[in-house]
Design goal:
The chain has 257 residues and is α+β, with helices and mostly antiparallel strands. It is built from eight helices and ten strands. 30% of the residues lie in helices and 30% in strands. The protein starts with 6 loop residues before the first helix and ends in a 5-residue tail after the last strand. The N terminus is likely disordered. It comes from Telluria aromaticivorans.
């Protein structure tokens, strides 16, 4: 049974939780229930969600409790509030989402989308380290993607990606090329996999022969390497990405708070 379809059960759960050592504030319990509904696909990316009043009635809690839960979901980029329109499920197809996971910014001018050139797409067996980071068994099927991203005609990012083969059946080079939106938008709309957070490790590296060829730099040129693991709902790892960045005209930018 979908826990969201049983408000009376929600109230009982809240009462039981208040007597247990693992008690969470009521708004966090409501946040968890809403997240379950997002994960199950009850509300699709980009769709308008029920109003705070409707959700309060559904869960038999105050509107303020629902609002606090929505506040946290909005801060985590799972939902988006639009003044006068309501709360929508966040989607990678939105303009504002395009640069959430791409932190490479131009030294001059405004951020804009790169042009993509797909070099290789294949199904293969997961190497041990890839399997470990994606929480797969060594040798499980993965989809491997290699591409170059260019800004204003200048090759800037050489990327390798590994995706769980079970989740991304049917992903081909042809589909990647013909899809004109962001890659995460494709993953979301056609494979039902939404990236909601990621961890990154960044280090300085020297350009090897492959980076030299694809980024048009001399071997040994200092470059930036970012290794990212992206997660969907339930903290499930669904992408490993290694990006080699040329920073001749760009820099890595993050906001700390």
């Amino acid at each position: 049974m979908n826990p969201l379809s049983n408000p009376a059960g929600d109230a009982a759960s809240a009462a039981n939780a208040s007597q247990s050592p693992s008690f969470r504030p009521l708004y966090q319990q409501i946040k968890a229930l809403i997240t379950q509904s997002l994960q199950s696909g009850e509300w699709k990316p980009g769709e308008l969600m029920p109003s705070e009043v409707e959700l309060a009635g559904r869960f038999k809690v105050s509107q303020g409790t629902v609002r606090k839960a929505i506040d946290e979901l909005a801060a985590e980029h799972l939902v988006v509030r639009r003044q006068g329109k309501g709360t929508f499920v966040a989607t990678h197809a939105e303009e504002r989402a395009h640069f959430r996971f791409l932190r490479l910014m131009p030294d001059e001018g405004v951020p804009h989308h790169p042009d993509n050139r797909v070099l290789e797409v294949k199904r293969t067996r997961a190497p041990a380290e890839v399997a470990r980071l994606l929480e797969l068994k060594s040798g499980d099927a993965v989809v491997y993607i290699k591409r170059v991203q260019s800004f204003d005609g200048q090759p800037t990012i050489l990327e390798e990606l590994w995706l769980p083969g079970q989740l991304f059946k049917g992903l081909t080079a042809e589909r990647l090329v013909e899809y004109k939106g962001p890659m995460y938008g494709l993953f979301e709309s056609e494979f039902g996999t939404r990236m909601i957070r990621a961890t990154e490790r960044i280090r300085a590296v020297a350009a090897d022969a492959a980076a030299s060829e694809h980024l048009h730099v001399a071997e040994g040129t200092p470059l930036l390497c970012a290794e990212r693991v992206s997660f969907t709902y339930g903290d499930k790892a669904v992408e490993l990405r290694k990006g080699i960045y040329s920073t001749a005209h760009h820099h890595y930018q993050n906001e700390l708070s």
